[in-house]
Amino acid sequence: MARLLRDIAYVRSGDKGDVVNVGVIARQPGDYAALLRSVTPERVKALYGDHVRGAVSVYRLDNIDSLNVVMQKALGGGATRTLRLDQTGKALGSALLRLEVVE
Amino acid sequence: MKDVVRLGSGSGFWGDAPDPAMELLDRGGLDYLCFDFLAELTMALLERQRRKDKTAGYVPDAVTMMIDMMALAKARGTRLISNGGGVNPRAAAERIAAAARARGLRGLRIAAVDGDNVVDRIDEFVGAGIRLTHLETGAEDFAHHRNAVVSASVYADCSGIIAALADGADIVITGRVSDSAPYVGAIMHEFGWRHDAAHADRIGAAITVGHVLECAAGASGGMSSRFADMPDMGRVGFPLAEFHRDGTAEITKLANTGGRVDAFTVKEHLLYEIADPASYIMPDGIADFTTLRLSESGPDRVRLSGMSGRPRPDTWKLLIGYDDGWIGEGMLFVPWPDALGRARKARETLLQRFERLGLVADEMQFDFIGIDMLHGPAAPAPQHEMNEVGLRVAVLTRSREQAEKVRRACANLWIMGPGGTSFGAPLKPRPVIAAWPTLVPRALIPQTVTMTEV
Q: Under CATH, which number does the domain B324-435 receive?
């Protein structure tokens, strides 16, 4: 069985306007390299489909074995305007845990 | 002169629990207890209230908490700083002062800080040639929404807080300062730091620590990926920081409280609601989260060092809230057998009802609860037959009347819909306030301190 991100990472997501970010933290320092391989803008966009309509950036925090995924136009217009129940993108972080780990 | 300041986190949002703050105040040995009550468009809700009643417009919970805590805070030597003044900090301060007098408290100084609320200055800005370009989309057509504006607040720095503390305030209540400004203001005041290049790294450290603390339980196990392992979350301890003059800090919480402070709870919150981690732009400075070192220095104790930053930006964020239609919403829940199939049929039935009712929609969204409501397209198809499935619909319309049709159509399905379906209480149409984030020159946003002594 392929490993999923849920096996090697913790996440936290939130919003600013129509932007959603997902912090992704390696559980073990040794898995940080696998995070870097697995979490790319292309794979993130493919996972979220039309939920994310803008650009995706992935920032590195080598000092804490973590990544920050920033997704533009990702909340249906922002917390107060979106038609989603998850108005602040809190659940989108857990969706990222579905990504298969690139070994 | 102190070399360590002890700051507690008293609230992470309007609606947060007051008991962990009271516990911190009672036995935290704190110099400061700081509170955040404002979400992105809270100011719009408060501005609407102030228009109806000139003495309203602050966060009622904030005033209640200050009133409940002020006697103990004075006794403990802890100063209370919050942004719960909303669009009317002076009214909030007057309310607190009146309660203090009624209780016979003496020698309490209460400061209101304002200047952030620029809802009456937008035309002045436009007249001065400020373009009000949308920060996320680059759109330049703000004029299109000018007449729908409800609120306009600048995320101001901690200058007003520093001035209030220097003037001996026991309680500081502000408008829309940045979420971290209460913490940064307390630290800068204690150590006598200025907003200059020489202090940029240390202010960056203060912003970083403020960011970790500003959502209260967010750094002590709340929202954690390891929530299942977190002890006693219903009795969680909010975090506190021991911030050192040298720009290092330890994050901890009180003994005998729930939750946990460890490397992961702090990392989780460092990453919360940020963009480029090397440029966390706040009105007080630009923090860099990529240089810090983080280590567990004891049970429920995390040490932060190597924090850094750059001087504050010349422009500050202005968030304008404007009316942008209504949302009509409904939910229904279909039981086994064939719950998903019948929920899909209910969706078709609703669409027919919308057509018959002549619903005019700008946007419409259906979710299948239990299937894809939270993860959307990222959710795979279910592998087994569901015990129950919910159907949710949300519709953006131009008017309340149109949004009301969504509620009516959902109610129509009480008898037209699938057998066994449950509806709960109908959801009311709600007005939409959209956000227009932009930038204004810092120099245009002076802050004012109004002191009341009882």
A: 3.30.70.260
